[in-house]
Amino acid sequence: MGAAPTIMLRDDAALRVFDTGQGLPIVFQHGLGGDAAQVAQNFPDCPSRRRLTVECRAQGGSGAGSKRPFSIAMFADDVLAAADAAGVERFVAGGISMGAAIALQLAARHPDRVLGLVLVRPAWAFDAAPGNMQPYVEVAELIDRLPLDEARAAFASSVTATRFRSEALDNLASLLGFFAREDVAVFAEVMQAIANDGPGVTRPEAASLAMPTLVVGSGIDLVHPLATARELAETIPSAALAEVTPKAADKDRHFTEIRAAIGGFLDRNFNNQDQS
Fold first, then answer.
1. What average pLDDT does range 226-254 have in this prediction?
2. If we measure between CA atoms, which residue out of 104, 110, 103, 113 comes closest to residue 54?
3. How much is the pLDDT for 271?
4. Domain ranges of the chain
């Protein structure tokens, strides 16, 4: 990932901020429960692109702080504060899953600052608490209610897990992994809050966005439906949709194709020029 992170204090939360490369500034955020390593796996880092990534509260190496409730708006505000602190006035906003929701909110709320938009495997379109995010709520509620071993066993034998086991094993592995987190109690709070939240962007607001946009989606994914990616691409004017190999089918090819799609989009629309 390059340089070591710096620490930004927001309220009483110490957040890790990664700032790598030079040139075109891109703010790129991880998904729910992810970190900067997840971003590095998906983003085509190179010396001519400056990437800024904030590990969101209670995720990666960032602290939770005491401010509540956790929300996509809270995380977006943290990201904008990091851009301000780094002296980045205008940037391409992007992210994976939850990070895509953060990027969409930044583009809608701060269109004067967002040069372009990259939405990778979006889990939300416009509604809060979509059905595809409810397994996260289910996991969080079990963690809150039962001893950890019992909670994991209960989820593993649930109707939800049975469906995921037959249709989306990669998603199931991620959900089961949450029970093994060291910060499981506070992360359950984050999961429940974010899964019940949304980007806070209406369809008309998305339809008014006037910036180059790339939406990346794939199949065999119950948490990030390809239909959601298509809906966003059809709503945002001039958005391009890139459908990549499902992660469940070929993980290496999946990430290679995502990096290629993002790199091509940035080259075509910004020519790697420093626009800060």
1. 97
2. 103
3. 81
4. 6-128+198-270, 131-192
